[in-house]
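hey can u check if this looks right to u? its 145 residues, i copy pasted from the old doc so theres a chance i mangled smth
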Amino acid sequence: MTRSADVDDVAGALYDGMGLLARRLRQMRAPGDLSLPERAALARLDRGGPATAAELARAEQITSQAMGTTLGLLEERGLVERRRDPHDGRRIILSLTEAGIEMQRHKRDTRGRQLAKALGEHFTDAELATLKAAAPLIERLGDSL
């Protein structure tokens, strides 16, 4: 098999598998859970540190208005805070609050618990290790699209 055929096979398998996973996770939404954009914004701030709304919007490939709405909801829940950039008072920098850091640390939402339950019940230790090793690669793939 040629490399391009392998790449096409992997792309197709990932597309199908991640599509199914995303649909199932969306179906699990419970009251109080964070939306996908909210979780993505929190994860970006957790990984990358404080950022502007425009930087977050570019990183997530969404409009500044959509990111502004998302950040407003996160701020209402006490998970992010805004402050003026000490080097440029015109810029607003967003960062995680203690509650946001805690939420990221424990990944407490229903979908995360459901996913953990399915992993624990249906996957071997070796399979879990493989998925753990693949997770950063899948994230990198998402960032490269």
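The mean pLDDT is 89.
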